[in-house]
Structures are given as structure tokens and as C-alpha cells.
Amino acid sequence: LYEGMEQERNYAAAGNVLRKLTGAGIPVIVLKGLVIRELYPYPYLRAMCDFDLLVKPGDVREAGRIIEDSGFRFDIDDGKETKYLHEIYGGIDLHRKLAPIGERYENITGLEEQVWENATAIEVSGANVLALCPLDCALFLVIHMAAHIISSGFGLRHLCDFFLVADRYRDEIDWDEFFRKAAEFHVDIFAKALMRICLELFGLELPDCCLKTA
User: Fold this and answer.
1) How does pLDDT run across 32-63, given as a tens digit for each residue?
2) Which pTM value belongs to this model?
3) 3-state SS assignment for residue 19
């Protein structure tokens, strides 16, 4: 009960920041938990310790100023995202890129532009923002888990997120296109492994192309 109340309190705080960003004319794509929580039986079951937001590179400085004016303090910038912390609420990861930093991702063209073109309008905690389309969302989750498994591993929450997206949007995602894009990031085999795990653990039903061995 306490955890649920804390999650809803943090969700409301995220909405306050999002309304300020959009009110300043800054387009925002919300990532991961802020969107996927709606796929869980009860949204507060999707625990979050921070909020992931994607803005265009040209909006990073102004977005950061608004976030800091909202009571968050700068923590670190790794070139891909800027982290902000708060004494009470969850932190904010302000992304300017979706792909992790590394040589294997440098030759991928048009990714950032494509996600903005494909993004869909949604409401999050009273704010009118954007979300990744189902295909881009599933791909981003796979890339995110792949990056995590290299550094420290990923948890059951990540796997549940991916399962819920793949299950909810199984008929809307062009899975051939999904695997074509996954191959550009060198995560297509990893994606198939994740799907097999979801098949065995959760009974995930997907087209045959998703389960073919590499």
C-alpha cells in the first residue's frame, strides 16, 4: 500500500514537470515506465525510481532549466542523457538520444528522426505528450536490456515490460520490420531469445517469424 501511494505521488510530480515542458513548447516523448505502467493490471505495480523523457537535442538546455526550476538538481551528463535528482520524488533521466553510446550504433541513420515522426499523442498525469509507437517502443526496450546485460544485467521488471508491450501490440507491430531494425543494432538474436523466454514463462503468442532460430 505504501509503495503504491509513493508511486502515484511520483507520477503526479512527473505530470507537473511534463506540463511545464509542454507549456514551454518543448515536445516530449515519455519512455518506459511512464507509458508501460498503463499495461499493468494496476498502474502502480510498475514501480519507477526515475522518469525517462526524450527531447530533441536543441531543447535539452531549456528543458534542463525547467526541470531544475521544478526542484530537481543536476547530477550527471554522459553524452546520451542528463540525470536529475530530487529529495522526495523520483529522479529524471532527460534523454537526447535513444541508442546507447558506442561504435555499433554510430552508423545507424535516421533513428532519432524516425521515432519523432512515428510518435503518438498520449496523456500522462494530465500532460499531453508523446509516446513511441509500439514497434519503436518494443525495439527500445530490447536495446535497453541489451545495454544493461553488458554492464550489470537486467531484471524481471524489464522482461515484464517487454512482454506486456509485445503481447498488447502483437497484431499492430510489423515484426519483419522490427527484426530488420533490430539487426541494424545487432540485437536481433537477443530479441528472439527474449521472445522465447516470454513464450516459455508467460505464454506469449507471436508470429512464426519471431521465433525462428538465427
Assistant:
1) 999 999 999 999 889 888 999 999 999 999 99
2) 0.90
3) helix
